[in-house]
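I wish you would study the pair of lines that follows with an eye to the fold:

===
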Amino acid sequence: MARVCEVTGKKTSVWNRRSHSMRKTKRKFYPNLFYKNIKDPETGLVYRVRVSAKGLRTLKKKGII
């Protein structure tokens, strides 16, 4: 499963690690993801969502969590 936030769309980004001699090697930055159970207020169903920390803040601000 891909490391992607289902709310914000954040995903793994790839940058270069630079040494003192300025050599370039690839490195990855992973988003800070959590699994969260979210209840749909209209239908009452519970969904398991993979959300980033920023996505959790967004859901709390909108009143979904």
Observations:
- Residues 53-62 form the longest helix (10 residues).
